[in-house]
Design brief:
With 386 residues, the chain is an alpha/beta fold. The protein has 14 helices and 19 strands. The strands form four sheets. A seven-stranded mixed β-sheet has the order 6-5-14-15-16-13-17, with helices on both faces. It has a six-stranded mixed β-sheet with strand order 8-2-1-12-19-18. A hairpin with a 4-residue loop joins strand 15 and strand 16. The radius of gyration is 21 Å and the shape is globular.
Length: 386
């Protein structure tokens, strides 16, 4: 396909990776993002080997590895600290050629933005609607301006406005639990030595080192959606929920400024198709949002960026390219969404007897069985997909 003009709505990880990939292949790209500053405070993420392979193709893998922290060991613990599962994640680098990296979201955003051509990203511009006529697609923005291109990509997250216009019948699915997140600068050696997830009754607590001086933590608890609270209320609730849990959980919560604690209800969408209408398509959480239980949400967006770009480059027209893109992404992203949902249900069990049974089964389960889904997800190489 000859070089075409493409508009991307959304300057998150999926949108930025798509822009980088498209520009490397000769497309003219403009990205519009509604927020005025990228990089969510207090958020970290995990990039598995499957995502690092794509980032390697985009030319940013080494920068990501330097900015983040290699995950060499991953543990599952009970709320009292009892070890349930202890996996050596460093072996993935030998097996799949790329490491598993934890990184602060803002650090990743900075790397991706620096890989774009100048003036690609437009911040503080909110998408309102699109119109298309077969010749092109026009996006209209909240500043009164518009832009026209050959293709519009909605990479604007789980609450996608582009998807809302395309498929208004699609509804979010609430997981039944909310999540709190924070980042702590700490020299606490116990915290620095841990990459873990601890399971209690209807609650979990995760600890991930994102670089040499910072720990990213997340917490979940079963409750109705829509809770409104101040930072102080969030911190007080967390200190109460996790008051009897093992070290260094209390230390991490105590060390996090209350106003930097984020809270988000956890939603996904049951897998759906198609993702495209005419000259408009969806990508990342706009198309295939998943709960965070496999740590693959950002990785799926990165994979999709690569596949969409390759499809646009190799197919003769947009319709064929979008059909190929969807055919190569639907099954895998649906599997991630459904598997992650199931894992979350197990992790959030609130019956004490069932929790004890769950923990016992995890403790006696062979490591190969526990890691089967992880290896299926992380061992995938989308760059070899025909």
């Amino acid at each position: 396909m000859n070089a075409k003009k493409i508009i991307i709505i959304g300057g998150g990880i999926g949108g930025l990776c798509t822009a980088i990939a498209l520009q490397k292949n000769g497309f003219e790209v403009t990205v519009y993002e509604k927020v005025r500053k990228l990089g969510e405070v207090g958020a970290g993420l995990t990039l598995w080997s499957n995502a690092l392979k794509v980032l390697r193709e985009l030319g940013v893998a080494d920068a990501v590895i330097r900015a983040g922290s290699k995950v060499n060991r991953s543990q599952i613990r009970a709320s009292n600290g009892d070890m349930l599962h202890n996996a050596r994640m460093g072996e993935m680098e030998t097996q799949y050629g790329e490491p598993v990296i934890a990184i602060h979201r803002a650090a990743l955003h900075e790397i991706l933005i620096n890989a774009l051509k100048p003036n690609t990203l437009n911040l503080g511009v909110g998408f309102v609607k699109f119109e298309q006529d077969g010749k092109g697609v026009t996006a209209y923005f909240d500043n009164g301006k518009s832009d026209t291109a050959n293709l519009l990509i909605g990479a604007d997250g789980v609450h996608s406005a582009v998807r809302g216009q395309m498929f208004p019948e699609i509804q979010l699915r609430y997981s039944g639990y909310t999540a709190w997140r924070g980042v702590v600068e700490t020299e606490n050696e116990a915290a620095l030595g841990l990459t873990s997830e601890s399971w209690g009754v209807g609650a979990r607590f995760g600890i991930v080192r994102v670089d040499k001086s910072r720990i990213y933590w997340f917490a979940t608890s079963n409750q109705p959606a829509g809770e409104k609270s101040t930072g102080e209320q969030r911190k007080a609730k967390l200190l109460s929920l996790f008051k009897d849990w093992h070290d260094p959980i209390r230390h991490l919560l105590d060390s996090t400024p209350a106003d930097l604690i984020l809270q988000n209800d956890i939603h996904d969408i049951q897998p759906f198709a198609p993702w495209s209408t005419g000259q408009v398509t969806l990508l990342g959480d706009a198309a295939h949002p998943t709960t965070p239980n496999m740590g693959q949400g950002a990785c799926m967006a990165i994979e999709s960026a690569y596949v969409l770009t390759r499809s646009l480059k190799e197919e003769s027209d947009i319709k064929s390219a979008l059909r190929r893109y969807e055919s190569q992404r639907h099954e895998r992203t649906a599997w991630i969404t459904n598997t992650s949902w199931t894992i979350g249900r197990g992790g959030q069990v609130r019956n004490p007897f069932l929790c004890a049974l769950r923990n016992f089964l995890v403790k006696i389960m062979p490591a190969s069985a526990m890691q089967k889904n992880i290896h299926r997800a992380a061992g995938f190489d989308v760059t070899y997909l025909l």
